[in-house]
């Protein structure tokens, strides 16, 4: 089997979700850390978009984290991380898309924008989280531990990195989880106990220190 290399960055939640998928699949890989502020001169030869993550599998390269994870699911089908039933599979893909186009998109604007009073974005983020609580967890999995039910899926691994870095939003943007997200917090606690998650987890202090460096460099 060709060696797998993952071009990653420790603060990138999209690279984080791919690392989690590789860990859950038990697929050995070499992680190559890329500094987004000081990329190698030949990085565009590796990543045509100039971003991480990029998965190199033999002579082939795949980028965009959701696509990388589906590639891993198809290439290494055990354990399965997507439902087999077509409607459930479609629902999983809808939630992965929601994470990318709503939750992470809004978070990126909050963290990297220059608005010192981003009230509208904070409100938007709260709305996304409440939608996840009521339209996602409360309807999809009732009291089951994971997003799609009793089995872990790519949906869980897609959302979880956001929660591991929540302290960054709290510290730099004064954001806190609103009340009434009990199911979401139960889900977070369940995923946090996975061996894959714990094996590569970082503390809030870890993220705050490194984001603090980025803020200083930016301003």
Main β sheet profile:
4 strands, mixed
Low-confidence stretches: none
**Count of discrete alpha- or pi-helical segments spanning 4 or more residues:** 10
The backbone outline, from C-alpha atoms, is globular
Q: What structural class do the secondary elements suggest?
A: alpha+beta
| Count of the domains | 2
Mean pLDDT: 92
Domain GST N-terminal: 2-80
Catalytic activity: RX + glutathione = an S-substituted glutathione + a halide anion + H(+)
Pfam families: GST_C_2, GST_N_3
EC number: 2.5.1.18
Concise structural overview:
The chain has 10 helices and 4 strands, in the order βαβαββαααααααα.
Q: How would you describe the overall organization of this protein?
A:
The longest helix has 27 residues, at 86-112. α1 packs parallel to α3 (65-75) and α7 crosses α10. The mean pLDDT is 92. The protein has 2 domains: 4-75, Glutaredoxin; 86-215, Glutathione S-transferase Yfyf (Class Pi), Chain A, domain 2 (Up-down Bundle). A 4-stranded mixed β-sheet has the order 2-1-3-4, covered by helices on one side. 58% of the residues lie in helices and 8% in strands. It has 10 helices and 4 strands; from the N terminus they run βαβαββαααααααα. The chain has helices spanning 13-25, 43-46, 65-75, 86-112, 119-140, 154-164, 166-173, 182-192, 195-199, 204-218; strands spanning 4-8, 30-33, 54-57, 60-63. By secondary structure, it is of the alpha+beta class. Keywords: Oxidoreductase, Transferase. It is an enzyme of class 2 (transferase).
